[in-house]
Amino acid sequence: LDVREKKRLAAEAALTHVEDGMILGIGTGSTVDQFIAALADRKIQLEGAVSSSRATSERLKAAGIAELELNFAGDLPLYIDGADEATMHGALIKGGGAALTREKIVAAASKRFVCIIDDSKLVEVLGAFPCPSRSSPWRAPTWRANS
Ligand code: A5P
Fold this sequence. Notes:
By secondary structure, this protein is of the alpha/beta class.
């Protein structure tokens, strides 16, 4: 599989956590783009999505998914996003897509975080990816190595 196909598979695996009528928090990046495409392809009817970046907002609009403001949406059941690096223990480096501030805000408002990554993101030790948030890697409580 090429990387794009792997991203698509990771994105599709996350669909098992998504139900019609949900309001999702949605991160940023090429894996998230695959997730948004998968939502549209499967014709999943979300109530809407809270976006973490302008790029994601554009993708949501193109997919016909309503974008909601976090102030109106309130607490979210689920946040979906990729990562730049991940350990088998679920520690992550994020921010490589330059959307970290909004990503953190939307993730913090969400009950669960399902991280969609392919195996190219797995590392023994975090830190090879050059980003300023290195000192405070995220914990991803619902991260699954094989999904
Ligand atoms: C955005 O700021 C990042 O945290 C992304 O989630 C991360 O860069 C993953 O991007 P890709 O899915 O393009 O690898």
